[in-house]
Every structure is written in C-alpha cells, then in structure tokens.
Amino acid sequence: MTIDTAIHSPEPAAKSDAGVSSFDAARRKADATLRTVADQVVGSVFYGTLLRQLRASTLQGPYGHGGHGEQVFQAQLDQTLAEQAGQARTFDLSAALVRDLVKQQTHMNLAAEQNTHTGSETA
C-alpha cells in the first residue's frame, strides 16, 4: 500500500470519522451546555445586578414609569430582562466566560495528567 492510497482509502477514514464525529458531538453538546449556563450566570449576576442598581437610583422623571403595576412585577420584569440580555450576542460576556472556563479546565487537566505520570514513576 502506498502513501497515496493510505491517505485516500475510504475504509480507515470511515472508521476514524465515526469515532471523531461521536467525540465531536459530545464536545458540541458539552460546549452548548456550558454556553447556556454561562448565559444564565452573566444574565443574573451582571445584568441582574445592573438592573437592581438602576431601579434603586432616585433619578426618576415624570415619564417612563408604570406606576403600581410596575412596582408589583418589577422583580419578574428585571429577571426576564437580565435573562434576555445574558443571551444577547452584541456584548458577549458569556463568550469570554466560556473561553476562560475552557482554558482553566485545560490547565487543570494537564496538571492532573502530569501528576498522574509523575506519581506512577515514583511508585
């Protein structure tokens, strides 16, 4: 078998593609889950806090206030607004959070792997 036929052979590629595609599918599902959680964290922590601070300010003009109905449902409105802002992709804090979490997890995995290798050599 030549190098050219080994590269273009459909059988090994099909076997490796199946393994890679299942790994990729699992990776995509984990990434999507991480992204969803990051959106929720950014929405509730950052935007939720921002909205609470804005509501607590005493700067209120004569317009733009919903009266008693707004006061009653203000917490629900703020929660909904924070969730929507956390999912927005214009100012994407979630992407930065996901990037940092993935980087931190990679470093932790490498450190654990190095500890495993050095621990087995000394034993």
What this model shows, in words?
This protein has 123 residues and is mostly helical. It has one domain. It is 85% helix and 0% strand. The protein has helices at 3-8, 10-56, 67-87, 93-122. The longest helix is centred in the first third of the chain and has 47 residues, at 10-56.
Write the layout of secondary structure elements.
Layout: H1 3-8, H2 10-56, H3 67-87, H4 93-122
Helix pairs in contact: 2-3, 2-4
Name some characteristics of this structure.
4 helices, single chain, 123 residues
Tally of alpha and pi helices:
4
The general outline is elongated
Rg over CA atoms:
25 Å
> Class by helix and strand content?
mainly alpha
Written as H for each helix and E for each strand, in order along the chain, the element string is: HHHH
Strand content: under 5%
N-to-C CA distance: 43 Å
Provide the low-confidence segments as ranges.
1-16
Task: Report the helical percentage.
Answer: over 70%
Can you give the mean pLDDT? 75
Q: How many discrete structural domains?
A: 1
Number-wise, the strands total 0
Largest sheet: none
